[in-house]
Amino acid sequence: MAAAQNDPADLSHSPFEDVQGIAYGATMAAFGIVLLTHLGLVTGQTAGLAVLISYATGWGFGPVFFALNLPFYWFGYRRMGLTFVIKTFLSVAALSLLAAYLPEYVSFANVNPVVGAVIFGFLSGSALLALFRHGASLGGVGIMALYLQDKTGFRAGWTQLIFDACVFALALTLRDWKTVAVSALGALVINLVIAMNHRRDRYIAT
């Protein structure tokens, strides 16, 4: 008898598939961050806060992003389990390292900021999709938002929206409004890519 469509046993990933999925996601996310910071743009979520801190202090994005994520693993463990936390930790660590070293191997001569913001959005969206489908994430406020939703009923989407609003408001103290507006376009593209392509009923990762 043929296996039922969308049977989790048929759609689960092997360890090798998880490795390549996480490698792809972390690499594309890191490349997107290199492009974003080259253009002096910002983004939302924990990555956006790390970018702002790096702009304000001169510290590298990688170490800041890695450190900011440390408190959120507890929320991830409580809600999604140890396997998710391990995969997410590896993804965050890989992104942090790649973002630190990729600029030594990649440079940009001329990139239009609007085009760059859209490309960043596509890169980051595809990176997150790859990580989600292999049971990982890039940590941060999204994990806390889901945890708070479970505990209080406050919708995770609202928590993330409030956080992003704060990040972009803070960005206005470091960047002009046109730069922030272009940055918001990149964040919108990320959300559209995820909203239109991430389907839990279609893709089941274990």
3D architecture notes:
Keywords: Cell membrane, Membrane, Transmembrane, Transmembrane helix. Pfam families: YitT_membrane. It is found in: Cell membrane. By secondary structure, this protein is mainly α. The chain has one domain. 72% of the residues lie in helices and 0% in strands. It is built from ten helices and no strands. The protein has helices spanning 8-11, 15-38, 45-57, 61-69, 73-80, 82-101, 113-133, 141-152, 156-171, 177-197. α8 packs across α9 (156-171).
Topology at a glance:
Blueprint: H1 8-11, H2 15-38, H3 45-57, H4 61-69, H5 73-80, H6 82-101, H7 113-133, H8 141-152, H9 156-171, H10 177-197
Q: Estimate what percentage of residues fall within beta strands.
A: under 5%
Cα-based radius of gyration, to the nearest Å: 17 Å
- Helices, by number, come to 10
Helix residue percentage = over 70%
**Quick one: overall form?**
globular
**What is the number of independent domains?**
1
Low-confidence stretches: 1-9
Mean pLDDT: 85
**Structural class category:** mainly alpha
For the largest beta-sheet, the strand count, sense and barrel status come to: none
Question: How many beta strands in the DSSP annotation?
Answer: 0
Q: H/E order of the elements?
A: HHHHHHHHHH
